[in-house]
């Protein structure tokens, strides 16, 4: 069965189509509509549904973790801007129009996928509490864990909260307490050297220095098309971190 990818940004949506064509993510259809316009009936016949799909990292990570394309699963990384501390000067939380959890939760509650994977910025406790309360009220057992991308040797901190939800009505037993999904083999060290593993300092023409990951060059050094790529990268999750989480949380 084909996979369903929902991504309203045209640049990222075309990237998804290119990855599908190259066989790097699960084959499927890309829907550029806003999730607000997606109805449960639109998702009939899809084994995998990826919302806020970006450049398809969840699909890529599922494959890397050994999750077959035909096994039913939903994934999503809801917009973080309304809840991120990085945008605290304009942080509006659930009153922000970009907070689309309610729309995704509606589709989840109507279609009831057996397993849902997702992630959010780590400084969004209120969002995690709401998500977990909503999902548990619908009969899903939810587990969460915070860990940074540098825990899997990525050259950045990128701390995120990952979550998994299993529908006990689909055969998963509802536990009496929280699900333990912590990857035991991850070394989550947050010291300065570890956190900024692989970074380098680059000095510009004005003599100012800034920290940049070693594989990312300054915009002034490359073609203008790289701006779009950086935007796509910035909205993506760390693939290796997602792979380790899926392996640890896989039912």
Detailed description of the structure:
With 251 residues, this protein is α/β, with parallel strands linked by helices. It has a single domain, classed as Rossmann fold (3-Layer(aba) Sandwich). Helices cover 27% and strands 20% of the residues. The strands form two sheets. Strands 2-1-3-4-5-7-6 form a seven-stranded mixed β-sheet, with helices on both faces. A hairpin with a 5-residue loop joins strand 8 (199-203) and strand 9 (209-213). Helix 2 (57-64) crosses helix 7 (239-249). The chain is globular, with a radius of gyration of 18 Å.
Number of domains: 1
Largest sheet: 7 strands, mixed
Instruction: Kindly provide the name of the CATH class.
Output: Alpha Beta
In the CATH hierarchy, what is the architecture at level 2?
3-Layer(aba) Sandwich
Flag low-confidence runs.
174-216
Shape: globular
CATH topology: Rossmann fold
Could you tell me the radius of gyration in angstroms?
18 Å
- Share of residues in helices: 25-40%
Mean pLDDT: 75
Show the helix and strand layout:
Elements: E1 3-6, H1 10-21, E2 28-31, E3 48-51, H2 57-64, E4 73-76, H3 101-111, E5 115-121, H4 125-137, E6 140-147, E7 160-167, H5 192-195, E8 199-203, E9 209-213, H6 226-234, H7 239-249
Parallel strand pairs: 1-2, 1-3, 3-4, 4-5
Antiparallel strand pairs: 5-7, 6-7, 8-9
């Amino acid at each position: 069965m084909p996979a369903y990818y929902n991504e309203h940004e045209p640049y990222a949506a075309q990237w998804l189509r290119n990855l599908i064509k190259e066989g790097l993510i699960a084959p499927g259809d890309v829907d550029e509509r806003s999730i607000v316009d997606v109805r449960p009936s639109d998702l009939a016949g899809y084994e995998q549904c990826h919302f806020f799909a970006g450049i398809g990292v969840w699909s890529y990570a599922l494959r890397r973790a050994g999750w077959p394309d035909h096994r039913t699963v939903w994934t999503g990384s809801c917009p973080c801007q309304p809840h991120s501390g990085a945008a605290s000067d304009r942080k509006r939380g659930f009153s922000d129009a970009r907070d689309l959890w309610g729309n995704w939760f509606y589709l989840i509650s109507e279609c009831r996928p057996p397993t849902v994977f997702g992630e959010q910025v780590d400084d969004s406790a209120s969002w995690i509490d709401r998500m977990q309360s909503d999902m548990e009220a619908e009969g899903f057992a939810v587990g969460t864990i915070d860990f940074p991308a540098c825990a899997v040797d990525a050259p950045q901190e990128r701390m995120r909260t990952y979550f998994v939800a299993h529908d006990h009505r689909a055969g998963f037993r509802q536990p009496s307490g929280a699900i333990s999904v912590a990857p035991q083999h991850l070394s989550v060290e947050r010291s300065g050297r570890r956190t900024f593993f692989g970074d380098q300092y680059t000095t510009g023409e004005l003599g100012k220095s800034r920290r940049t990951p070693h594989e990312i060059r300054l915009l002034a050094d490359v073609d203008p098309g790289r701006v779009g790529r950086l935007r796509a990268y910035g909205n993506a999750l760390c693939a290796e971190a997602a792979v380790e989480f899926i392996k640890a949380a896989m039912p």
